[in-house]
Amino acid sequence: MSSIGHILPRNHPKPRIKLAVWFGLFMIGLMLLSSFAFVLDYKSTQNVATSTYGNYTFTPAQNKWKTEINGNDLTFTYLPEQLEHTNISLDAIQILQSTRVFWITYDPYSEFSDLLGGIQYTNDDLLKLGKQMYVQRALLNNSEYPDLPQINCGNATVTEPVLMFMQANETNLNIDKSCIIISAANDEDFLKLNERLMYSILGVMQ
Predict the structure, then answer these.
(1) Are 83 and 195 in contact (CB under 8 A)?
(2) Do 74 and 68 touch, CB atoms closer than 8 A?
(3) Which residue among 2, 121, 198, 206 is least enclosed by CB atoms within 10 Å?
């Protein structure tokens, strides 16, 4: 006579349990790979060479460059040596260096409005921390943004100059009395002219 053990079916592991085990192993593997990739990325970042310009040392910081000015870490898109051939007027530098506060204005309907709005905030941070200067934000047309004043070159004075950004077909920097006009046709030229000017105001470049 057969024993009960031979009559009843044997218990086999269910496929769902096997899938759960394999999925768990797969997730553990992903976590280990992610940790390994992070370590490699960190080491790669640490191995990137710094850059020295005059008395300033620049280190990589999230696809930008960081240096210490006036005891504060300030971040730039370009290194000074990358902007040595970006020409700006000495008069423009002196106009802004001779004051503690100035206006930055631009056309909110320009296709570069997001970039130029960002430049307003960035310049305010750079100059406040690097030279204790202050930026007053404005627009060339404030019909839809009444919280910001409407400012153009006609409002520029010796004590409160105006830095105006204009979309144009050619890239240049012009001066109209106490108003500095940066014109450009693309993002890169706006950024380069602006950072070249900021470096000079902060004393990093001549």
Answers:
(1) yes
(2) yes
(3) 2
Instruction: Name the pTM for this structure.
Output: 0.76
- Cα radius of gyration rounded to whole Å, the chain: 29
Cβ(206)–Cβ(94) below 8 Å: no
The Cα–Cα gap between 148 and 150 comes to 7
- At 18, give phi and psi (nearest 5°): -60, -45
Sign of the dihedral defined by the CA atoms of residues 116, 121, 122, 127, in that order = positive
Backbone angles phi, psi at 148, to 5 degrees: -105, 140
pLDDT tens across 98-132, in order? 999 999 999 999 999 999 999 999 999 999 999 99
Confidence of residue 31 (pLDDT cuts 50, 70, 90): low
pLDDT at residue 41 tops 50: no
C-alpha 124/C-alpha 108 separation (Å) is 18
Edge-first strand listing for the sheet containing 56-61: 51-53, 56-61, 64-69, 72-76
Q: In sequence order, what DSSP letters do the residues of 64-77 get, joined into one string?
A: EEEEEETTEEEEES
What DSSP string describes 22-48?
HHHHHHHHHHHHHHHHHHHHHHHHHTS
With beta carbons less than 8 A apart as the criterion, state whether 148 and 139 touch.
yes
